[in-house]
Amino acid sequence: MKTKLTKIYLVRHGETDWNVQNLLQGQTDIHLNKKGIKQSQEFAKKVKKVKFDAVFSSDLVRARRTAEIITLDRKLAIETRKVLRERFFGKYEGMPRREFYKLFTNWEKLSEKEKFRFKLSEDIESEEEAAIRLITFLREVAVGYAGMTILIVAHGGLMKALLIHLGYATAEKPVRMKNNGFILLESDGVDFFIKEVNGGEKNV
Predict the structure, then answer these.
(1) How much is the average pLDDT of 171-179?
(2) For 15, which of 36, 108, 111, 117 could close a Cys bridge (C-beta 3.0–4.6 Å)?
(3) Number of Cβ within a 10 Å radius of residue 187
(4) Does the annotation mark 122 as catalytic?
(5) Residue 42 annotated in active site
(6) Active site residue: 13, 93, 155, 165, which one?
């Protein structure tokens, strides 16, 4: 008997002021700005005809609010999960991204695997750790909601790490998701098939 594939729309939250200022957001709880609210309303229109069977969101307010806006006219409860939070950057959160990346010494000399596992200090998450955290949850969803269509609202860094993990991108040449960009996946709980990456920017 053929296993039913679960369809997963993995969406990045709308814009925040920290996104505009290009600050490292991580798990710091920053609200959507006016543009972020409008973006999420526009995304809701884009997926208006998609019938979601369940909705999950990071418990951070920017993701939760995005999920609320997308599902406003639907009778669906949003289940928040800490596991869907953005990659954790510890003491570096709030730092300008440009300054953060200046701290990466000898980056060019690292192998692809070393880049994926790299972290500046032990108290932050590597991209590999973030990807494993996300994919473990996605597998549980795919098995628990076999054959259904699920909406998950999460974060750009987490999605970037997932695309590297799945071989769609590399740590050297990543794909960064725009606000309200999404990845459409299908999964049987073991394998993942990327059907669409919408709003991804390569080599930015």
Answers:
(1) 95
(2) 36
(3) 21
(4) no
(5) no
(6) 13
